[in-house]
Q: What sequence folds into this?
C-alpha cells in the first residue's frame, strides 16, 4: 500500500523557518516525481512546489518562490520542504503528494496528477 | 496563470439525485483537467484524470467530460458518501492551479 506520512509542522513566528518532511513507502520512491500542496484553514487547495524523481528539476508557486525549497533523498525515501521567511498567510495544512498518470509512461517529471495524498501537517505562522 | 472557476459554489441535492458540477478554465487546457473529492477532515482523493478517466476505485456513477475550457463532473445518482467538496485542477501549465471548489450538500 502506498503511504505518505508528513511531519515537521507546528507553530512558528513570522519570519521564522520550518522544515517539513514526508516519508514515503509502498512504491519505488526514486521513480516518482513529488509535490507539496497546501490548504489554508477553511479554504481551497494551492499547489506549492514540485520536484522531479532525481531532484534535478524543481517548480514553485510564485507565492513561495525564493522562500521555500523542495528537495528529496531517494536513499531514504524522503521528501522535504524547507520554508524560510514564513508569513501569516503561509498558515495551512501541507500535503505531500505523489505524481501519477504523467504525460509520459513514467513519472520522472512532475507533470502528473496527485495521488495519493498524505494526511497533512499543520503549519501555523503567528506571533 | 490559468484560473479555474467552478460553479456552483454549493449544490444542495438529495440522495438519488443527479449532480452536475462545472469547471471553466481561463484558457484552453486541452484535456489536462482532473477532479478531486475531499470529505471533512480528510485529504483530497483523485477521482478523474485527463478530463474523463476514472481512477481505480472511483465508482462508475462519476463521469468527467469536456475539453478546452469547459468541463463537467456528473454524479448520476448521489450516494450518501458522495456529499463532499469537489475540486478541479489543471496540469496544462505552470503553476498547477485548482478551482475554488463546489460543495455538494444534503438538501
A:
Amino acid at each position: 500500500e502506498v503511504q505518505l506520512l508528513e511531519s515537521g509542522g507546528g507553530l512558528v513566528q513570522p519570519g521564522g523557518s520550518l522544515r517539513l518532511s514526508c516519508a514515503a513507502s509502498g512504491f519505488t520512491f526514486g521513480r516518482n516525481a513529488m509535490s507539496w500542496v497546501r490548504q489554508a484553514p477553511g479554504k481551497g487547495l494551492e499547489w506549492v512546489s514540485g520536484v522531479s524523481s532525481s531532484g534535478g528539476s524543481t517548480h514553485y508557486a510564485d507565492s513561495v518562490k525564493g522562500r521555500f525549497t523542495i528537495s528529496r533523498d531517494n536513499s531514504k525515501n524522503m521528501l522535504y520542504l524547507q520554508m524560510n521567511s514564513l508569513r501569516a498567510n503561509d498558515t495551512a495544512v501541507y500535503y505531500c503528494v505523489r505524481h501519477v498518470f504523467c504525460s509520459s509512461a513514467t513519472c520522472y517529471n512532475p507533470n502528473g496528477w496527485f495521488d495519493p495524498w498524505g494526511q497533512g501537517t499543520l503549519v501555523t505562522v503567528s506571533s | 496563470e490559468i484560473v479555474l472557476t467552478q460553479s456552483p459554489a454549493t449544490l444542495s441535492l438529495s440522495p438519488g439525485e443527479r449532480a452536475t458540477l462545472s469547471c471553466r478554465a481561463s484558457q484552453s487546457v486541452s484535456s489536462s483537467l482532473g477532479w478531486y473529492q475531499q470529505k471533512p477532515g480528510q485529504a483530497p482523493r483523485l477521482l478523474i484524470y485527463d478530463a474523463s478517466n476514472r481512477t481505480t476505485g472511483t465508482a462508475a456513477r462519476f463521469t468527467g467530460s469536456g475539453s478546452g475550457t469547459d468541463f463537467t463532473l456528473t454524479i448520476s445518482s448521489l450516494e450518501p458518501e458522495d456529499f463532499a467538496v469537489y475540486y478541479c485542477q489543471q496540469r496544462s501549465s505552470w503553476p498547477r492551479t485548482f478551482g475554488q471548489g463546489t460543495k455538494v450538500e444534503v438538501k
Notes: The mean pLDDT of chain A is 96. The CA atoms of residues 23 and 78 of chain A lie 5 Å apart.
